[in-house]
Amino acid sequence: EESNCITNQKTVVAVVGGGLVGSLNACFFAKRGFHVEVFESRGDIRCAKKVKGRSINLALSHRGRQALKHVGIEEKIVSKGIPMHARMIHSLSGKQTPIPYGKKGQYILSIDRANLNKELLTVAEAYPNTKLNFDHKLQDWSPETGQMTFIRADGAKDQIEADLIVGCDGAFSAVRKQFLRRSRFNYSQTYIPDGYMELTMPPVNGEFAMEPNYLHIWPRNAFMMISLPNLDKTFTCTLFMPFENFEKITTGDEVIEFFQEYFPDATPLIGVDALKRDFFCLPAQAMVSVKCSPYHIGDKCVLMGDAAHAVVPFYGQGMNAGFEDCIVFDEIMNEFSEDLGAVLPEYSRVRVPDDQAIADLAMYNYIEMRAHVNSKWFLFRKHVDNFLHMLMPNTIVPLYTMVTFTRTRYHKAVEHWQWQNKVINQVLMLTAVGATVAGSCLLIKRRTDVIKMGLSAEEMWNRILALKTF
Ligand code: FAD
Q1: 23 lines ligand 1 (CB under 6 A)
Q2: Above 60 in pLDDT, residue 452?
């Protein structure tokens, strides 16, 4: 066993996990002048040929961009993203209908996950007070001493101490294990019954096979497929479906049958041979939602990103929320002059309700994306909301806009949404009642005329139909 003590006058911050949130967080701490050590269980992905991990691309929006801006790399990342201005809904017949995400000029960005992670690692490494340690898998740590035990690729163990441990090691966090042993730590973990599978849609004659500046959605009620564009002119299609449906498809012919039935327009674009092959390359992946509180232990340790709040991916907010964690922590560091004993509890107090709100919203949006977008009422309400937002931009703000294009606290966005839903529904109901009353008055008046004219019921009905007063 090797013992390693980092001797430095500065506060030593150990960021466990060099994924998206860990590598960005390292920049935030380095900017403050702390001595930052990042420990990542994988090797350096910048040297790897193929990066294993979750989704190939993801949607970056306002909160994530603001965090990147804090460390001066927003433009660098945004320049490698593809703007998506609207959802493009594909009906069974292949009809495509766009539903804009927000006002003109508002969009989300499709970003390559591996490239983003590589860029963030390079930016973090450029700080002279930051060191990246790859092939360091955290095994355990002590809340009393702050001593961590890492396992190296060759099986050797490293003992390392830090003043602050920042757990950014994802949904199955090893840092969080110590929290679970403590009293008054709340924890819940829910697997949804659905899995996801990624398939590639290649370019056609060197061009995107579909309109690139959209997030394409094939909502099919019980399941759905989505598709995000990549810089190499491919699309990554992700099929979200209950595991039991995945399990029913066991042969290449069944894959094609299934795709022809539900995604007939996408089938030739992905390609029959590719579908038959790729569907069985990797099994469908599970999705978990994790909620916990508090996020800290004393002044020693804090959880951020998926380690604190893994959410299902249907609001495109997991990474964005994790990036925003870094800004919120940074703001509280300013407020409490870097006094970790005060900052950590305040961070838990402020951030837990927001992360729990986005976890719930992400669950809700799964139903919205795969089922509600098929409903006329939903589309009507979207139009009403957008119209009212245009008239009263500060009072009526669509939920998606608050979540995606502002930094309104997630739980405040939910509260505001519930309030405005109540108001809009009441106004719509009053309008409907008003219209019915007016219609009835008209009808009674006509009926009186009819009786006066001595018409038969059938004649009366025909006249009403012809007048089309309803
Ligand atoms: P991770 O990305 O999981 O990184 C954790 C890191 O810690 C990894 O590098 C891992 O190797 C390392 N690690 C793990 N254990 C240890 C250990 N014991 N010791 C040391 N290191 C360790 N979010 C969005 O905002 N927009 C989207 O469009 C979007 N789409 C998604 C689509 C899918 C299918 C999925 C599954 C998620 C999506 N997300 C999206 C969510 C997003 O992927 C996560 O929220 C984000 O990756 C969280 O980053 P993180 O750094 O907290 O965790």
Answers
A1: no
A2: no
Indicate which residue's Cα is closest to atom 47 of ligand 1: 319
Distance 17 CA to ligand 1 centre (A): 9
Contact call for residues 323 and 26 (beta carbons, < 8 A): no
Atom of ligand 1 minimally distant from the CA of 42: 11
Report the SS3 class of residue 3. strand
- pLDDT confidence bin for 449, thresholds 50/70/90: low
pTM: 0.90
Q: Is 255 in the pocket of ligand 1 (CB under 6 A)?
A: no
Q: Give one DSSP letter per residue of 60-118, joined into a string.
A: E-HHHHHHHHHTT-HHHHHTTSEEE-EEEEEPTT--EEEEESSSTT--EEEEEHHHHHH
Distance 446 CA to ligand 1 centre (A): 66
Residue identifier of the C-alpha nearest atom 3 of ligand 1: 170
* Helix, strand, coil percentages in the chain from 3-state DSSP, rounded to 5: 45, 25, 30
Quick: pLDDT tens for 191-235. 999 999 999 999 999 999 999 999 999 999 889 999 999 999 999
| Most confident range, picked from 148-152, 428-432, 438-442 | 148-152
Q: How far is the centre of ligand 1, averaged over its atoms, from the C-alpha of 189 (Å)?
A: 16
How does pLDDT run across 147-197, given as a tens digit for each residue? 999 999 999 999 999 999 999 999 999 999 999 999 999 999 999 999 999
The pLDDT tens digits for 260-292 are 999 999 999 999 999 999 999 999 999 999 999
Query: Which of 315, 314, 254 has the alpha carbon at shortest distance from 279?
Result: 254
* Pairs from 115-119 (Cβ < 8 Å, separation ≥ 24): 115/80, 116/20, 116/60, 116/77, 117/18, 117/19, 117/20, 117/23, 117/45, 117/51, 118/45, 118/46, 119/73, 119/76, 119/77
pLDDT digits (tens, 9 = 90+) for 331-351: 999 999 999 999 999 999 999
* Ligand 1 contact via 169 beta carbon (within 6 Å): yes
- Please work out whether the CB of residue 41 comes within 6 Å of at least one atom of ligand 1: yes
DSSP state string for 205-228: TTB-SS-TTEEEEEE-SS-EEEEE
Which ligand 1 atom is nearest residue 198's CA?
34
Q: For the chain, count helices (H), then strands (E).
A: 16, 20
For ligand 1, whether the C-beta of 170 sits within 6 Å is yes
Nearest CA to ligand 1 atom 12: 17
- pLDDT at position 77 is 97
Compute the Cα dihedral for 169, 175, 180, 186 and give only its sign.
Answer: negative
Residues 6+ apart with CB under 8 A from 211: 88, 96
Distance, CA 375 to ligand 1 centroid (Å)?
33
